[in-house]
Amino acid sequence: MPLLAAGSETSLPASDITTLLLAIAVLLGLARVLGEVCRKLHQPAVLGEILAGVLLGPTVLGAIDLSVIDWSWVGWDGNLPAIGSDLYNYLFPQPVDNHARIAEDGFIVLSASLLLLVVGLEVDLSAVVRQGKAMLSVSAMGILIPFSLGMGLALLFGDVLGSGARAANNPLAFGIFVGLALSITALPVIAKILMDLNLARSDMGVLVISSAMCNDLVGWIGFAVVLALISQGGEASGPAIGVVGTIGITLVFLAFMLTIGRWMLHRILPYVQAQWSWPGGVISVVFVIAMSCAALTEWLGIHSIFGAFVAGVAIGDSHHLRQRTRDTIHQFIMNIFAPVFFASIGLRINFIEAFQWDTVLLVCAVALIGKVNGCFLGAKIAKMSNRESWAVGFGMAAQGAVGIILGQLAYQAELISEELMVAIVIMALGTSMLAGPVMQRILQLKTQRHLNQMLTDRHVMIDPEAGEIESLLRAMCARAAEITGLEEGTIFDGVWARERVMHTALPNGMAVPHARLDELSKPTVILARSHRGVDFDAADGMNARLIFLLLTPTDQPETQLELLSLVAKTFDSDTVRARCLAAASATELRAVLNQAAAEDTASQHHDDETLGM
Amino acid sequence: MPLLAAGSETSLPASDITTLLLAIAVLLGLARVLGEVCRKLHQPAVLGEILAGVLLGPTVLGAIDLSVIDWSWVGWDGNLPAIGSDLYNYLFPQPVDNHARIAEDGFIVLSASLLLLVVGLEVDLSAVVRQGKAMLSVSAMGILIPFSLGMGLALLFGDVLGSGARAANNPLAFGIFVGLALSITALPVIAKILMDLNLARSDMGVLVISSAMCNDLVGWIGFAVVLALISQGGEASGPAIGVVGTIGITLVFLAFMLTIGRWMLHRILPYVQAQWSWPGGVISVVFVIAMSCAALTEWLGIHSIFGAFVAGVAIGDSHHLRQRTRDTIHQFIMNIFAPVFFASIGLRINFIEAFQWDTVLLVCAVALIGKVNGCFLGAKIAKMSNRESWAVGFGMAAQGAVGIILGQLAYQAELISEELMVAIVIMALGTSMLAGPVMQRILQLKTQRHLNQMLTDRHVMIDPEAGEIESLLRAMCARAAEITGLEEGTIFDGVWARERVMHTALPNGMAVPHARLDELSKPTVILARSHRGVDFDAADGMNARLIFLLLTPTDQPETQLELLSLVAKTFDSDTVRARCLAAASATELRAVLNQAAAEDTASQHHDDETLGM
To answer: Does the distance separating the beta carbons of B292 and A21 come in below 8 Å?
Structure first.
């Protein structure tokens, strides 16, 4: 790099800066793309984000080495370049003292803390208090049962699991660790899943999140105890206060933040809002407080994310934090930092190399059985219904990032073998993947349909030529035939039969021709936007300019009404109709619908916001 | 740190993570506090942010070493701890291979790129094209004149300035560099100043920004030429394409981004808005594109901030980027990353140690004279008025961060001495400090008054006891007397004389008793919020619940009307009135006014936003 060629005193030469920027771009880009793919497949976005890391990490990209393939059998003795692993090593350098890697890891650490800050902001403390008894019961049973199972497993099958060098002559520490590893709950993952399912602010969501929080606290403190058990007074940089001291200070910190700290925030936030530039001042203050708390808990040995989380809880509880500010923080962190963090999980682990069937199966089975049944029991004790109790059980079983971090730390501390670490990571991912869909099925949550999800560009016709009803409907049915594979005539006959009874005009220049069809496999909507309008004989005399062709399977009799009310609801807004009429292309029109759907969801979230500060 | 005590494979041990998080918190916290103080003093916030770095850097905090003081003269031979420099070295470690420092520097590099992304988003390309001729004239003269002066200075006074080891036998390279250093304009600083002055979207603001952009491009390419001149083919990590190749690729990149790149963005953004989660998808895309462009230009040797800036220009131009998304990005970056970047400038330089009067004076004088006059001439050639031309000259003279970065890079490349670097940094800071106030004075910009700026908590009376006019006004006058130091009787007499002629009720439950007073030094407003209301004999029969006592100096006859219309305008909104009535304290009430003022300013900015996508 010319700019810094000579005797430079910089810690980050241009080549490392290039790597850092490119690595973040690639990581975020792929994570977001796969996250959106998962969303389309009705999976939590976090799965796609984790998968991006696995693809970019040693498991896939790092393993692609075309240069080792022997090409002599095709009569060629040349070598292909090791393009995959070279790229991997360039983007995510291995040596722990590589400057680009250090800067990347710094960004990832920040991302993890900021993610937990947002998770904390979402926690509604008063709801936690309301859930107090249930929370205690769920988190107590959710720790006790899997912990006992895990500890028993470790003491009985230590060889299969594989303990690390340091734990060889300390089976107790090993046992406690495995117990902990199987009883933790992943706050960020389960929070994201609950947000995806629109449950984060429901009573059950709050119960799961607060139990997970309680769980995490016990987990981290327990882990500190384990490390104290196996350490022989190494070079600790934290306070020389021993395990009891660490636990004590952590509890004092927690109590302080949730009482005096909260009270102080209630004073500081209005002051900042009154005196500083608005709304930026509050964003800075939130960030500074989160980083300070994160630094404190990192120094205590409880990991930075715990401090950021507690800061988020204390701040988020304040009604002085306005919704707009909250949204800005949420949007920026969930779309920049969170995907990078989740993708980073797979970056340093080769999932194939260290994979051992028996270890993985054992860990997965025990974790799932212990955690699901433990939390189910806890929920039953708190007098919840069977259905809800199972949902809580599977929700709490999601181990996600925290399980992975614990596994990594234990491996680094030579407490467990690489194989056990990989098993814990896979178990953490698997339980996280399971949690969302299983909860959705148990609770029979109907994912809310939005028009935009049913449309692609091919479903939208911008200003078709047809100027009167019959030709317009023929054109729309032709398009529907292309998409569904049904016969155009069949569709048109059904639609036209209905239309002849009475025209299907709605107020405000809309029309909803529709038909139930035997051969149709799933509901199909064709949307035509016609600038000059088509006369559907409306009561208000307006020509229809937005025409929705609603085709539903005969065996789903309720779907037609559902679609009708969906159209009516979405297009009740003057703004949405005006924007649709102004859209220059099918894609732009769908962007309008996408935004309308997002704002609809958001407004359901924030119904509780009032005019007051 | 217990968690990672044993044979860890991590690149960032917990102690470094603690340092990283704490350093960011301290840097951001102090930068924002001093930034707000500067804002209160009617200085650009960026000055306070830079000052925070100087205070936390080697100049102040790092220099505090109480242990070297000899206390024997007070009869004590003990030592005080080196608390300042210890803290400095802890927060911002010196060694270039210290992991915490590398992670900090990575965050700062990111911050610089993100700052330039926002600056780029603010550029309105069509306005740049409108300004085309003026822009060319200003930037050409703004480079030629200071460049010639600087080069002459370097060739004549090379000894005073102090060239580095590498430049000893290459006076030409040294001359070109000094010329460049004096002719550059700081895009981020001037952009921030223009935003603070509410000029960023005015024709003159766009002229200054686009000239600075053109200027920067020439500057960075010129700097690459200089380094090519003095380098003897060192270990370059960038492309082996020589100076001409670098310039060529840069121009191709620029042309691509502003034509095909822009066109592609016009396609991608609606697609993302239609398909991805809204509005987060767009935020991720903007970030990924900015990081990719930054990586590309860093690799080319033109510095990452240039790529981020160009990306911002290409994206910001799209009308598909909605105002809400723009605001989220803007708010987050300007309140988290920008302050950290500006504060980081002072972190590694001891401004006192390397300070030499003659070098500093010479550099400052030549830079100011050359740049101001050059740009003034350029503006005159483009037929601007004298007043505007001088404003452009002083605006373009702001060297800010870019001058500092250039100076640092040249010092690292052993092209200039440490003394010259410090002189360049001080010149860059000085010209940046000058630019805002001087432009404001030349253009006779009246900073817009907002009610909130005139109020402290003492100016606001929440629910005073008084239930009828006279006692209420007596109480308000007593408060005014406390604040202004005038006699209570004098104030009340003036107010009551006016009130007896006719009561000062406004519609919607407001009243504005007022008086002009001889002895008053500045306009004073007392706001009383009365829940039960006071009868001011209003035409609509409503009791006044928001009462403004407006006191103005007799020698500012126009101020009274200005305040009256300000009250009327601010409280025209039902929402603002309702929130003021709901506020629980003076601070909360002022937070409402602060928000109203910010939204008022923002709406002036974005008047051009329409319903369309």
So the answer is: yes
Distance of CA A47 to the CA centre of its chain: 7
Nearest by CB to B304, from A17, A304, A575: name it: A17
SS3 of residue B525 by DSSP: strand
Rounded distance between C-alpha atoms, residue B488 and residue B128, angstroms: 56
- C-alpha B154/C-alpha B152 separation (Å) is 5
Rounded Cα gap, residues A282 and A273, in angstroms = 7
Instruction: Using an 8 Å CB-CB cutoff, list chain A residues near B334.
Output: 280
Mutation choice for A interface testing from B118, B288, B341, B406 by most A CBs within 10 A: B288
In this structure, the strands spanning A514-517 and A524-534 are unpaired
| B310 within 8 A of B353, measured Cβ to Cβ | no
The Cα–Cα gap between B599 and B573 comes to 12
Mean pLDDT in residue range A67-78: 69
Supply the pLDDT for residue A290.
95
How would DSSP label each residue in B369-386? HHHHHHHHHHHHHTT--H
Q: Tell me, what's the pLDDT at B28?
A: 95
Kind plus residue range of the DSSP H or E element containing A476 = helix A469-484
Q: What is the mean pLDDT of residues B579-599?
A: 82
Q: Per-residue pLDDT for B141 more than 60?
A: yes
- Per residue in B245-284, pLDDT (tens digit) is 777 787 888 889 888 998 898 888 888 887 777 678 889 9
For residue B425, give the nearest of B344, B360, B356 by alpha carbon.
Answer: B360
Show the DSSP H helices in B398-468 as ranges: 400-412, 418-442
Instruction: Report the distance separating Cα B229 and Cα A85, nearest Å.
Output: 36
Of residues B101 and A562, more confidently modeled: B101
Residue A350, number of CB atoms within 10 A of its CB: 17
pTM above 0.95, yes or no: no
- Per-residue model confidence (pLDDT) at position B577: 87
Place of tokens 């925030």: A265
Task: Of A567, A235, A191, give the one whose Cα is nearest residue A395.
Answer: A191
Q: What is the per-residue pLDDT for B336?
A: 92
**DSSP output for A480-541:** HHHHH---HHHHHHHHHHHHHHS--EETTTEE--EEEESS-SS-EEEEEEEEEEE----TT-
Amino acid (one-letter) located at A117: L
Sign of the Cα torsion B156, B162, B168, B173 reads negative
Residue range B483-529, pLDDT digits in tens: 888 888 899 998 988 888 888 888 888 888 999 988 888 889 999 99
Question: Looking at this predicted complex, what is its ipTM?
Answer: 0.77
Is the CB of A238 less than 8 angstroms away from the CB of B2?
A: yes
- Which residues contact residue B439 at a Cβ distance below 8 angstroms, ignoring those fewer than 6 apart? B193, B197, B199, B391, B394, B395, B445
Whole-number Å distance between alpha carbons of A558 and A537: 26
What pLDDT digit, counting tens, does each position of B373-408 carry? 999 999 898 888 898 899 889 888 887 767 777 777
**A324 vs A606: CA distance, rounded Å:** 11
- From the list B303, B320, B459, B514, the catalytic residue is B514
Pairing of strands B514-517, A544-553: unpaired
Interface test with B, best of A17, A249, A285, A575 (most B CBs within 10 A): A17
Candidates B230, B278, B582; nearest CB to A612:
B582
User: How close, in Å, is residue B439 to chain A by CA atoms?
Assistant: 22
C-alpha angle B130-B136-B137 in degrees, rounded to nearest 5:
110
Residue-level pLDDT at B110? 93
pLDDT at A4: 32
Residues A92-99 have a mean pLDDT of: 87
Nearest to B597, CA basis, from B583, B580, B579, B576: B576
pLDDT of residue A600: 64
